[in-house]
Amino acid sequence: MTAALVAVAKAVAAKIEHVEIHEAYELGRNYGDFNEKLEDLDRLHIDVIAETYPVSELDTRGSALYEVMVAVAVRKRFDVPDQTNEDEGKPRIKTDEVDALVGVVQNLFEFWLLEENRRIEDDEYSIAIMPEDSKIVIPCSRKALMQMHQFLGLIRLTFRASKELTDE
Predict the structure, then answer these.
(1) How far is CA 126 from each of CA 12, 28, 63, 107, rounded to the nearest angstrom?
(2) C-alpha angle with apex 133: 127 to 136, nearest 5 degrees?
(3) I need a surface site. Which of 33, 91, 108, 132 has the fewest CB within 10 A?
């Protein structure tokens, strides 16, 4: 038996491999260490984070229903800022590079809104996204850019996962 939270996070990670992203990336599933500074430079990271069950209840006699929240974090650490802000003389990360990563965040979010991606196959659970409860939380964290020279974007997806209960 797999917990609904784990099953949904694993299914989301597997489905993300089908999203068209025009840059090599490392896909991981974890419990939320995305606020740490990345050690490797110039490598895109996509993290699937199992967050919480806002609702769990008996769905029908013999089945359980879980609302599962999963976050998807997009991260990339820049080496040394590539350009200088003429007015302040401070180094800055190229706007075009950040723009592209904001686009990756939006692309990942929109992927789940397409009808063919709203349901996920799983052996144990019937999983479907709740698009009305899913959103882009952080398109780009200015704090992460300024303090760590690291891009951080975050989306939160909410899924319904129902399971037939058995005595096994």
Answers:
(1) 13, 23, 11, 24
(2) 105
(3) 132
Q: What is the CATH number of domain 4-163?
A: 3.30.2000
Tokens of 78: 């820049």
pTM of the model: 0.86
**Quick one: tokens of 127?**
């999983």
Locus of tokens 């007015």: 87
Question: Of 9, 4, 11, whose CA–CA distance to 119 is shortest?
Answer: 11
For residue 50, what are the β-bridge partners?
70
Q: What percent of the chain is predicted at pLDDT more than 70?
A: 86
Q: How far apart are CA 130 and CA 124, in angstroms?
A: 19
Domain locations in the chain as residue ranges:
4-163
Give the tens place of pLDDT for each residue, 25-40. 999 999 887 666 777 7
Band of pLDDT at residue 168, cut at 50, 70 and 90 = low
